[in-house]
Amino acid sequence: MQISIIIPVYQVEEYLKECLDSIVRQDQKIAVQAIIIDDGSKDRSSSIAQEYVDRYPDRFEYYRKVNGGLSDARNFGVPYAKGEYLMFLDGDDYLADHACKTIIDTFEKTNADLLFFDYINFDEEHQEVYHVYEGTSSFVSAKQYLLCPPTAWNKVMRTKLYREQKIYFPKGIWYEDLATTGAYVNFARKLYYLQDGLYYYRQRSQSIMNQESYNPKMMDMLPAIQNLLHQMDCKAYYEELEYLCVCNLFYNSGERLLKYHRTKELTKLVQFVNEQFPHCLDNNYLKKRSRFYRLICSFVSKEHYRSANLLYKLKNKMV
Quick one: angle between helices 16-24 and 45-55, nearest 10? Predict the structure, then answer.
């Protein structure tokens, strides 16, 4: 078996066929093991999954478990992986037709430990390639990798490495990818970026990133960051981790929380960053961002929330 693809599924009957069809369309010369993990779906997802197992028994396996969330479903699937390489595919997304062949060819050419690639954001009306790294296909350093989006589904790793390190996505929190994928640099020594959009990432209005009201789970950004810092060598990657804290706990969380006037919650995040990284506004990566971005981070850091919120509103009007 060349590549194992773990597919967590929960209440995605509307999109699941498109996802599984993308597995069927992969090059037949590539040995693909698609492991469908049904996380207790109550819609037709289970019957759709079983249909594909029956039709394509050489490609699909199906396992059902009690609902435990995305992290739990991913962790559940890992022991079943038989492929040399391991990746994740969410049940409402899908792969480009050439994805698996390109992945295998790239691993054989580079002998990398970990491969990551671009993806396509799409919805019913349009699609756009998102480049996760500013450069052409090449090996990247651990520091360069840390500054790329932490999404789990655009990364492929040697299964043996993944198992040896006993990697687990933290159960029960949002932002589980941020909590986990950065620490891959602890053991994946050869990191390769592939400038190719191999993954189609569906934009859904009801997703975690598109909430219409405040949800206490938005505060999971803090344990996610804490989990990452706990796993990392903070001295070796101090500036990169400092920058990630500023981006996620100041800028991103500030925009989400101030929208719903959650200043008390935001202050908890701000205090954490200022305690861990007291000179974070002098971060060299932050200095490369726009003055507008830096000004928002400065306002949030100093708890000048009204000024920060005005800038967020101005930014949204400009989009």
Answer: 20
